Amino acid sequence: MFTQDAFNVFWQTIDVMIKGMGGIFLFMFIFFLIVKGLDKIFPKEIERE
Amino acid sequence: MGGLFVGLFALTWQQLIMIIVGSVLIYLAIKKEYEPTLLLPIGFGAILVNIPFSAAINQISGGTEIEGALTTFFNFGILTEVFPLLIFVGIGAMIDFSPLFKNPKLLLFGAAAQFGIFFTMALAALFGFTLKQSASIGIIGAADGPTSIYVATRFAKELLGPISVAAYSYMALVPIIQPPVIKLLTTKDERRIRMEGVAKSVSKTTLILFPIIVTVVAGLVAPTSVALIGFLMFGNLIRECGVLNKLSLAAQNELASIVTLLLGISIAATMTADRFLQPSTLIIIGLGLVAFIFDTAGGVLFAKFLNLFMKEKINPMIGAAGISAFPMSARVIHNLGQEEDQFNFLLMHAVSANVSGQIGSVIAGGLILALVS
Fold it and tell me: Who contacts B239 (Cβ-Cβ below 8 Å, separation ≥6)?
């Protein structure tokens, strides 16, 4: 625990964290655009509650 | 006569502890109803494999290896990833994506609430786990059993037992884990924020196209995620196409039930005393809890961050529903909202975030496979 090797792996996980979180947000944003796009192309009724 | 008691005399204290562990899992499944579909088979399997000379797992007798049934199930269903993927078909057939279309911006919470995965992964690295083991431990935070099993099978088969037990136990404990974290990070006024409901009817074409487009997009951006997201979306397409109702019901019920049973008992093949009774098991179980706490925190804090810029405020508790534990997390958020204000109906929004979490967790699994491989 907390050895030099552990810190080396830790910095790798930080790299994965940045890319991973960025990637998930990117994916979800693309899905958001898909949902919005489908919504526009195939419109539906809207009832305010 | 002594031959009759050969098993009894060979029983070690470690095996006895594992039999007790198995019994506790069965107790939690039956008495507390903690994910019984998984914890009961895992618990019973743990007993099966820890009986001395158990024929349920491979044994060496007279120099030859005799294959045990559970080892066969494990090799066929888990190592080949068949069981988790078939479960994804069942889950896909159960998911109704229409709440997502009612409030698509809540999709972002399905991303924010995956933070616990990466935080825990980093923490696991500090405890001396390798990168692949850390990734497998972190994915407990996906709050999605099949994804955890899928990633652990690829990266750290030796940790599959404790990872599965932690993932399914904490999924069952969401109503206990999430409320204190949410209360710690939000004020009473924030928890009282009301959100306007929008009831929309979603066209059938949209619901059919969504799983297909998502699979293609996910596949093009991260091909390693195709199996995970593809099987989930395949199940959903069966549900939404409208011409495979029998198959859809079979996927939701018979397929999901049978494969869950086999998955649970097969995982137990890895829960032999020599493998399970390690200090790493306790660390993994502790880290699993950290993952769920930081998932919740990630979602809540992201909602608070968005509120800095938004005219129509979001109740920050909705962010916590961005985990995959469906529909438990959505119910927890709704109940918390009603505790503060009995006329605050957050269920619909929480369900939207929760469905986003189901997509987010699978995407997170796919990305981890891509980034760590």
Answer: B92, B93, B94, B95, B96, B248, B251, B252
For residues B264 and B44, what is the distance between their CA atoms, to the nearest angstrom? Answer: 9
Chain B residues 90-109 within an 8 A CB cutoff of chain A: 100-101, 104-105, 107-108
pTM over the 0.80 mark: yes
CB within 8 A of B158, min separation 6: which ones? B270, B275
Q: Does B319 touch chain A (CB under 8 A)?
A: no
**Residue entry with tokens 């290896």:** B65
Comparing CB atoms, the residue among A10, A30, A42 nearest residue B206 is A42
Would you call B60 helix, strand, or coil by DSSP? strand
Q: Dig out the tokens for A49 from the structure.
A: 């509650």
CA-angle at B50, arms to B47 and B56, nearest 5°: 85
Check whether B158 has a pLDDT greater than 60.
yes
The pLDDT tens digits for B68-78 are: 899 999 889 88
Is the minimum CB–CB distance between B221 and chain A shorter than 8 Å?
A: yes
Give chain B's length: 373
Q: What angle do CA B259, B264, B268 make, to 5 degrees?
A: 140
